[in-house]
Amino acid sequence: MRCVIMQPTYLPWAGYFHLISQADKFVFLDDVQFEKQSWQTRNRILLNQDAHWMIVAVKVDRLAQNISTITIDESRNWRAKHIKTMQAVYAKHPYKQELADFIDIIADTSITLLADMNIKIIKMAAEKLSLRPLFYRASDLVLGGKRSDHLLQLCRCLSCNEYLSPVGSADYLAEDGVFEQSEVHLTFQKFSPIPYPQKGVAEFYSHLSIVDVVANLGWTGAAEYVRGAEGAQDERDKD
User: Which of 102, 142, 145, 230 shows the smallest number of beta carbons within 10 Å?
Assistant: First the structure.
């Protein structure tokens, strides 16, 4: 049983959904400290042939506040700005209408917590991409431990014998050495973004939000892209 554990980020990139595609059980790591200027509140789309940051306004009441408690700041007009920007940027894209699912959630002011909004966006997109692991929130499981030990406890709580991690976490996982001494097998994601047709640009921009993938490929094409990237990467590794 394979477990993936990731913070709930805003409009994640395709690699995030590739991880979901590989998971039997997926945990939203929302019980760790919120970090300013992180993927928790922002992501990028293309604007005027360059990467443009879309940043959610939030309120931070105290230091060391967990992601699950961060409130969205409605005093700033970020929702309307994001919607207007997305609609303008992708107005002539072949699948612009399929961005309505993102826009509906962003526009929903009844969602007051950052994690709730991010998780709703991610689960909606996962369903559209036909990705259906069992989803959990770490804050609901109420487990202890720090860093790698916390991840291990989550895996054990969910009866998973494999933990799939993004490559970017390799250094601190090796430093902690927790998984090496456990019964849970540690593996790392194989994902490299493959260029897809991006309307209006001469050079491919990688690591953009899944919004860009959907606008260019549609949900069906995006599903193939997210699932197929690992196989394509494996084929390149053989060359």
Answer: 142
